Every structure is written in C-alpha cells, then in structure tokens.
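name: query_chain
kind: protein
chains: 1
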Amino acid sequence: MTRLLRFLFSETKAETQVHQINARRQELARLDDSALKTAAKQSKTMIETFAVTAVVVARVLGFSLFEVQLQGAIALAGGNIAEMQTGEGKTLAAVPAAVWYAQEGQGVHVMTANDYLARRDAEWMGPIYKYLGLSVGCIQQVMTSEERRRAYACDVTYATANEIGFDYLRDQLALYPKDQVHRGMAVALADEADSILIDEARLPLVIAGDQESTEALAYRVDTVTRYFRQFHHYVVDEYGRNVVLTEAGVAAIEKAFNCGNLFEDANLALHAAVQDSLHAHALLRRDVDYLVKNGAIESVDEFKGRIIQDRRWPAGLHTAVEAKEGVAPKMQGRVLGSITMQNLLGLYPKVCGMTGTAATQAGEFQDIYDLDVKVIPTHRPVIRVDHPDLVFRTKQEKERAVIDEIRRIHETGQPVLVGTASVEESERLSTGLNDVPHQVLNARNDEEEAAIIARAGERGAVTISTNMAGRGTDIRLGDDVAARGGLYVIGTNKHENRRIDNQLCGRSGRQGDPGQTRFFVSFQDNLLVKYGIEDDPRLRRDPTDIQRLIEGQQLNIRLFLNKYERVTEGRRRAMQQKRQGILDGTFPRDSELERLVSLSTIDDLWSEYLAAVADLRGSIHLVSLGGGDRDPFQSFYRFGGFNAFQEYIKRVHTLFEDLQSRIEEEIPIRLAKAETSGIDPTQRGSTWTYMTTDQPYGTWMDRALRDFLKNRKTVSGVSIT
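structure:
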C-alpha cells in the first residue's frame, strides 16, 4: 500500500510539473535567441531548465516535446528508470534530463546500445546542447586516447557502456596521470537500460595482455574428443546444459595422453581442457550460439540475436570452439583487469535510464540498483491487438503453423515481422517460405539492419529476424498499411524473461498505429526443455506463469550472488584506490622510479590474483561435476551447493590477504633490481579488451532453479504436479 501511494503521489507530482513546464515554455518562446540563452545560463530549477530546453528543441530541431516526453525526462532527473514504449521519442526525452545533470559540471555519460547510435545521437542532439552553452562528445571504438579524453571532458558524452568500461580498465593500468582518459564518474543515463543493467549486468569486461600461448593443449585435446560418442564417452544431462565423461571417456583420455589418473591435481589443466572441449562439441551449436565469420568465432547475443563485437567465452572454452571449427585461435592473454557492467554502474553516484520494457523487472531494478521504475503513458492510446498464444505439441508442428500463418497474412498485404530465437531457426523458416518474397535479418547480415528495417513496414513485406530487429530504430508503416491492420508480429518462442517477448511485441503499434501480435509455442521449446517442465499442464492455460516463476527465482539467485560479489568488488576498489593514490601522488613515493615500480608490481600481482581466483572457480566447478571420485552422476548438492560458494568466498579472501602481503614484500625487491640492473618498469607488451560470457553453459544456479521448478507444488494457486 505504501509503494502504491508513493507511486500515485509521484504521478500526480509529475503531471503538476509538466503543467508548470508548459506554462513557462510558452513565456520563454516569446524571447529572442539572446534572451533565451541568458535565461538558460540563469536557470536554477528543473522546471526552468526543462522549459528552456523544450523551447530550444523546438527552435533547433523543429520538434515540440510531448507531455509524455517531459514526464520521461522528469523521471530521469529524479534518478529513476523511465519505461517509454517504442516510438515515443526516448532519445529526445533524455535531453532535458541530461541538460539538468550537466549543469553540475561533472559530466553526463549517455550510454547507448552501439557505436552508431552514440554517434547519431550526439550529432542529432548536439546543436541543442551547444545552443545552451554545453559541450557534447561521443566515444567511438576507433578513437585515440587523446580523442577519448576530449570527449569525456565534454558536459555530455554519448558512448556505449562497453567503451566506457574498457576505458576505465585501461585507466587502471596507466603509469602517468596524463595517460588516463576519464575525469571521474558522475552521472550515467542508460538508454536501453534493461539491456545494460540486466541482460549484460553480470558480463565481465576484460583487459588482457601478452603471455605465452597455451592454445596447443586445446587443439591436441580436440583431436581426441571430436570422435567421442554420446552415452559411450560422455553423457549430457536431461536439460542439455551440462556434459560429463563416462568411465569409457576417462579411460580414452588417460590412454591418449598417458597421464595416469585424470582427476589428480597435476592433470587439472588437461581435465579443464577436456571439459571445455566436451562443452564445445556437445552443447554449443554453430548458427545458434555462435557463427564462423571471416575465419573467426563470433558469439551471438542470446537476447538480441546480434553478433557481439569483442565478446568471448572464458579462455579455455573459446579456444575449444576454435579448435572444433578449425579456425586460427585468438590470443586470450593474461587478464590484467576485469569489471562487470553492474559494478561499473556502481561507480556512478547518480544512475538513471530508459527503456521500452522495464516494469516486469521493477523488483530487480529496486533491489539491486535502488532504482524505481516509472511507467510513462503513451502519447496516443495503444490499439495494438495481442492475440492469445497458440500452443503445439512439437516444434515441427509449430513451424508448419507459423509458415501457414505468414502465407495467410501476406496474401492480405499486411506486413509481417517474425521474431525467432536463433540464426538457425530464422534460416530454416526462410527455406520453408521459398515461394514468398521475404527478407532475413540475423547476425550474418546485421550490417544491413537499417535498410531491412526501413522496408519492414511496407505493404506485403515479410521480415524474418532474430530478436535484433528494431532496437534503436522504428518500423514505420507504409502507405495503406494501417488500413490493413498495421504490422503483424509473430513470435516463435517464449523467452525466460517476459521483457524479451514484450520487446518484440513493441515493434508493432507505435504512436497509436494499429498492429497485431501472436506467439506460437511448442512443448519442445527451449524454455520448457531447459527447466524440465515441458509437460507442465499450466502451459495450456498461460505460458507466462512459467516465465513469472523463472523470473522470480532468477532474481533471488542474483540477489544471493550480489551479496557475495559486493565483498569481492570492495576488494577490487580498495586495490584500485591504493594504486590511484600512488599514481596521482596522494600516496607519495621517494622517487619517480619507486612510483613506477610500485605501480607495475601492483599490476603484475593483481593479474596473478585474478588468475588464481579463476583457477579456484574452475576447480570448484569441476569438482561439482562429480569428477572427484569418477562418479559422473554425483549430485551437485553433495558437494555443498550454496555452501561450496561460501567456501569459494573464504578462499578468495585468503588469496586477497596474500596479495596485500606480497605487494609490500615485492616492491622493495623489484626496486632494488631496477636500480642495479637498469630495468625499465614502463616497458610493457600490448593490451586488448573483450567481454566474456562468465557462465556460458549453465551452472549450479540453473540446476537449483530447475530443481525448484520441478519440486514446487503450486504457483499462483495453479497446481503443477
């Protein structure tokens, strides 16, 4: 009741503020440019700032900000997540809030989905900021350090969250203050906030450096495991998310490598390489989880269906996939630093964001980020018709029905957008529609997205896409299409999170346009198979029941992990603060040489600490698979489940204490060597950055959730078993 009253009060307050802004902007609209710029400089309140900005938007771009856009801006300025539907003008709604925050003089980072949108939005909105006396910049992947420094020095900086994070990691390795490009974190305004704060929140950003290549082992292992047969050499769990060796598989490895007992500590590297290879062959699927493109392995984002630039799986698994596909390995390198997107956002004193789909994750935004979700009404009523789901017994029956539906709708001239779960599925449907003119949009041709989307709303258009379609761009209806019912969206799968499905539906019915949506679901879909509930009778009533339950349990697990990660992140920040103090002179050293040696020593030992933590995490994972006593069916819970994680945290704590002691011991030793031998501590190899999918093939978290779903008796009063 308290939350409801607070929500109602805030909505009433926002409406009052919009009326005040509109009244003031009518007065300001009478001023000439000189007087308006003076008013902008003198504005001290949000009402005045928003009113001035609204007038400037009209003069510079010729657009009049809608009341709902002002409501969105008010939500952002209040440090909230604003849910605004597709086509409601989120990009423009962010400007008044960015201007308000920028007046504090510490810089605003507007986080976009990709480099193109960062450049487009900075160029499009730039004249507004400049009119108001504010500077604007954007970060692009190809920029030099000096160009990045100038962009971050601007009042408003548009950039992807990845680039901001990579620059932060590079700054943590700088040997001189002048080499750092950030001036500090002040305000983060996340466009597509659901993607940044939830979908990619736990993905580590990594900076790595040169080290001796270790890929040879993975390729040697692949020559053996590629001939392994399921059920004889290995088994895959009933959900298709884990794979372990059988006795025959263990014997084959021990014979091929003449290594003795595979499960002895001395064979940990071999055991890990074998496990990675098994996962690569048995669980990761070409054209679903990754593509082979231009002689390299390209990861596909499971939420959007796009190729994610510079994203890799953990080192051993990525190399195993490269060996499987026979492509040249990418050097993984020694990890020098890492930070998750969630922890990167934690560096900002002020965070806000906007997205078309946030309400279903309101609890997570509140519990993890302490951010409220404000649902902004649409400028025009939504008249889109969302039809009930159609449920089929098999995937084959479902796909036949989808193809029949596409043909039926196409004959009417109504455009169709089909959202699929993978490149493989999109191309399979395309083959079945060889008699219907259509476009396919997936990770193979993502550079053609803008052109394909531009035609997707035309009369008779059929577009088969992965979930990438339309993020950051609108599908506009062609002539006579509205009279034919608008865009018809077909979803071929339900996802673990309702928000992903809602994103697809949101491609249709923008700005009061007509439209229709319908999902086609089968008992063999991944959502049901993964969690072992494909026979759940609730599916015939409402598939979203399953999604709600999964969302709730995933949130509980993420909150559990977040509690422990805060401790780990606290240690990383403590080490970073120590290093920064040495870098900028807050913690002075006796000589320039001692300062450089101290910094390089911290960097080297921190890298070793990260490697030790990764090895510890990997060893616990292998033990949890039952390898310790060669029982491949050993229950994970016998190893301890959550207790195993607690033990992991204890060991990490011990490793960190050892790190601190070693740093103090190593610095004088290395300084003495540098003074006597003339070693230059500034000499380093090259570095590079990438993202890594930390848990690419399911973990104990998946198992805990599956067990919960199978054993729970009721959900929302509906019997499960």
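note: The radius of gyration is 27 Å.
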